[in-house]
Amino acid sequence: MVHGNNFLFMAIWCDLVVDYDALTVTIVEQIKQSVGGHNMPVKIRIKNGNYRDKESRVVEVQNQVFTLIKPYRSGANGGYVVVDGSRIVPNKPSLRVKVIDGDFSLEDELGQPVVLDEAHADAVPKIDVPTETDEEAISRIRKQFAVLDQMTHAVTVGTIRGLIVSGPPGIGKSFGVEQIADAYEAENRLAGNALSLTEVVKGSVTPIALYQTLFMNKDKGEVLIFDDCDSILFDEVSLNMLKAVLDSGKKRMLSWKSESNALVREGIPDRFEFKGGVIFITNVNFEKCA
To answer: Is residue 141 a contact partner of residue 172, using CB atoms and an 8 Å limit?
Structure first.
């Protein structure tokens, strides 16, 4: 989970996490020794990865072999290696490639897997893959959803302004959030308030429709739930509005400075302060998009 002053991001991706940082800086020299000398280049087969070209566009790498320059390292946005990229990128002898989930293997010049001899078998640190029983996995997942319930409740009472929930489809993200929202609505009705305080938005949303929806749910105590509205993440105008309502500043101001008959017809101003809460539920895996 990542959180700011009043905003929280929660990822529920139940994959087994392997610490590939055990591959140390000295691994290249160690493997060179094991296959017969320092002059033999080490090849790396990257099964799933990507790099950025000179225009910062993401280029996918699938099952490609490179000459390894620097070994696997863990960075802020995941693991990466430095390879000789001149074969696919002209004038790029040193290319940094992100490796998705540490999915690579080492080979010699003939394409054979590198096998360490007995003299060097202990030179390369072993990668300890954690094991987890079904009961442990179920317990861990239950804890994650318990935290999700707590954070959703925190949005309804205004402790947290916004929450982004990321995870694969079909695991119950929406169900848990909407249960808490229904309970919040029930409390609201018991208190004698006729107006609904929550709205669930599903499907595609245009930028102008997003602006209208945010205005209609702008007051303190109101909660907007966006479920499977991933189009918002891939539209620059919509994304900027989402960032504005998740901002941790004292005031969250939104503006629409383009002419719009729809806003005029609905009596919606071109600038307003948003004081409500937002929960954004998505299937997008942000770690793999980084």
So the answer is: no
Q: Is 281 exposed, middle or buried (0-12, 13-18, 19+ CB in 10 A)?
A: buried
Residue type for position 112: Q
- Pairing assessment for the beta strands 49-52 and 223-227 based on DSSP bridges: unpaired
* 108 has pLDDT over 80: no
Helix or strand or coil: residue 100?
A: helix
Sequence-ordered list of residues with C-beta below 8 angstroms from that of 135, at least 6 positions apart, any chain: none
Per residue in 124-137, pLDDT (tens digit) is 334 444 566 778 87
Query: Is a pLDDT exceeding 90 seen at residue 256?
Result: yes
* CB-CB contact of 97 with 49 (8 Å): yes
Can you give the residue ranges of every domain in the chain? Answer: 2-12+134-289, 20-107
* CA 35/CA 260 separation, integer angstroms: 69
278: closest CA among 118, 173, 193, 158? 158
Residues 6 or more apart in contact with residue 136 via CB below 8 angstroms: none
DSSP string covering 23-39, please? Answer: S-TTHHHHHHHHTT-TT
Contact 160, 151 (CB under 8 A): yes
CATH number attached to the domain at 2-12+134-289: 3.40.50
The Cα 113–Cα 211 span in angstroms is 55
158/277 Cα distance (integer angstroms)? 7
Q: Which residues contact 212 (CB under 8 A, 6 or more apart)?
A: 262, 263, 266, 268
Distance CA 226, CA 280 (A): 5
pLDDT confidence of residue 128 = 47
Cα distance between residue 276 and residue 267, in whole Å: 20
Q: Which two tokens stand for residue 151?
A: 């954070």
